[in-house]
Amino acid sequence: MAVSAKAQIGTKSGSRFWRAPLLQSLPLRISVLVICFLWTLPTAGLLVTSFRNPQLITKTGWWEGLVNAFQPDQWTLQNYANVLSGDNMATAFLNSLIVTIPSTVIPITIAAFAAYAFAWIPFPGRGPLFIVVVALLVVPLQMALIPILKIYSGASLYGTFLGIWLAHTAFGLPLAIFLLYNFMSQLPRDLFESASIDGASAFQTFIRLVLPLSIPALGAFAIFQFLWVWNDLLVALVFLGPGKDVQVMPTALYNMIGPRGGAWHLLTAGAFLTMIVPLGVFLALQRAFVRGILAGSVK
Amino acid sequence: MALDRTQATDSGAYGTPRWVLVASLIGLVFAALGITVLIDPHGGQNLLAGLYDMLGNSSGAEALRNGQGDQFIAKLLLAVIALLVGVGGIWLLFTGASTIVERFSPKLRDRVIPWVFIAPAVLLLTIFLVYPAVGTVISSFFDPKGAFTLNNWTSLAKGEFLEILRNNVIWLVVATAGSVGLGLLVAALFDRIRRESLAKVFIFTPLAISLVGATVIWKFVYAVQPPSQPQFGLLNAIWTAFGNKPVAWATTFPINLPAEMLIMIWLQTGFAMVVLSAAIKGVSVEVLEAARLDGAGERQIFFGIIIPLIRGSIVTVTTTIAIATLKIFDVVFSVSGGLNHDNVVAVRMFQEMFQFFNDGRAAALATVLFIAVLPVMVLNLRNFRRQAAM
């Protein structure tokens, strides 16, 4: 909360620090390089291994694979083909999309309407209700699992996409309402006055004014929630269960770890498959991602 | 950015046109039909089979109903329906309800409309968070047969549960301090180089990765082979190169605790770095230059000026990471399921639910997590009250 969402990474730092001549700043440069190298090394190992010939993976380290990169039988795409067909990763990929997209859009929509009402439409009980939202911000979702599971098995929502949408929506709502409220309450008052003079209804004001103006906040939360839901294991395990026809990618990957601890050629390929979408989202929308992180640092 | 005047007067004071209402009501009927397909475990297959029947492809329909045939196409069909229902349904719901309410008398309309806007949120929060939280606290006092008991709570002070609680405290302290400390270090170092934003990408890309994926990445780093065989795990390859015996980093207590915590630190450092770096950039250049003119060294400036000035951000980052760490589940669950004296509260809770079928104990464990975040909740509420103008 203390951080302004406008703060950016990567601004030119110009005169903020005294700049040493090249020779003196060499230790700094080297340590930065070393840190970046170390941070990337584990992922690089996974990526390289996923393309290696399964027979070689357990015989030599992946770094030796890089040294002998031109050895004829070093590389293969077969690991990916196997994991997509044999381990239901293709189905899990679709399931992840089915779970994640509505689980992102539904809470944003519900939260946007609610945040607008909380920020701009007076109604009895507004203050106390919002206090409840703030209080719910940090409640661990573990507190909700058992009773909801009981409701779900009664209402045959267990193992259904509708069930997990509702769960993810509810768990994401407090943060979504809070962030969007913070943003929307900063919109200028004149805007709403002129809209009401023009005879716009509350709904029209929301659709035509509030929503377009709130795109930065909506986008930031969307990325936050998308990554959270896509990467989630616990909620998926509890409400969708381990069934092969509904399992999402993290569940599928987890199921591969258990019985096949040694099948590194499949495990590495599977792990990389689960990362493609979030990494793509991340690289494409880096700025909004950072804004989301900065704004979302209360959860 | 004023409201477009011509558009506003078109549909103006009389609200949204009637066709919007009709369209959204029809849409909602379809959404309801879509939900019945989604709730049916074989909804996708049955729907596609029905389509095949209509098209005269009865053998394809038969195969689908028997769990064979074009399963993947059925899944795609289900995906399309799911997206239409999930994304479209929620918008139709709000549009339909608002359009209906706009037709009420002005006085009634103004009173009802805010409730139309907040009702879905309030309903979901009540059903999915408030009611379950209360229910969880209550059921922590009951045994599986439904009799009142304090056992769920008293047993937490014994043996394996003591170990679990100890591990959570270690996680909370070490993983949080590690992430925040490294994040601060990286933010301060990177602030002084030219290709800063590029360097940062390396550190915070892991944030996009799931904890299960991160665990696979690191399990591969920690992989161990018998001493006679080549070590393909990076850490053991380095370790044995110095003449040591290979170590099963991920499964040997107590080294597995730091090994697992490193996964979380590797992931969360990027988060700390992003927030703290933004805060460091918020420190005004004038302050720094004044200090430099007074002869302060770079180290003095960092500890004496920058850190006190960004204290608020450090607190925010620390509480955020601490809450995430407290609930740590994926890492421990995927490394070994907490079999090697490395179990934590969230994993044990899951095991109580699905392996031991002891919901009372699971509820007590969840409540432990809740009690641990209570101070943060109080802090949030106090901060909010201070700023609130409501």
Give a quick summary of the entry.
The complex is a heterodimer of chains A (299) and B (390). With 299 residues, chain A is mainly α.
Can you put this structure into words, describing what you see?
The complex is a heterodimer of chains A (299) and B (390). Chain A is mainly α and 299 residues long. Chain A has 2 domains: 56 residues, no CATH class; 213 residues, MetI-like (MetI-like fold). Chain A has 15 helices and no strands. In chain A, helix 1 packs across helix 14. Chain A is globular and about 75 Å long. Chain A starts with 21 loop residues before the first helix and ends with a helix. With 390 residues, chain B is mostly helical. Chain B has 2 domains: 128 residues, no CATH class; 234 residues, MetI-like fold. Chain B is 74% helix and 0% strand. Chain B has 18 helices and no strands. In chain B, helix 3 crosses helix 5, helix 12 runs antiparallel to helix 15 and helix 17 packs across helix 18. Chain B starts with a helix and ends with a helix. The interface between A and B is large, with 147 and 141 residues.
Structural class, judged by helices and strands of chain B?
mainly alpha
The CATH topology of the largest domain in chain B: MetI-like fold
Query: Quick one: biggest sheet of chain A?
Result: none
**What oligomeric assembly is this protein in?**
heterodimer
Going by CATH, what is the homologous superfamily of the largest domain in chain A?
A: MetI-like
CATH class of the largest domain in chain A: Mainly Alpha
* CATH hierarchy class name of the largest domain in chain B: Mainly Alpha
Low-confidence stretches of chain A: 1-15
Task: Give the SSE string of chain B.
Answer: HHHHHHHHHHHHHHHHHH
Proportion of beta-strand residues of chain B: under 5%
Q: Largest interface, counted with CB-CB under 8 A?
A: A-B, 147 and 141 residues
* Silhouette of chain A: globular
How many β-strands of chain A, per DSSP? 0
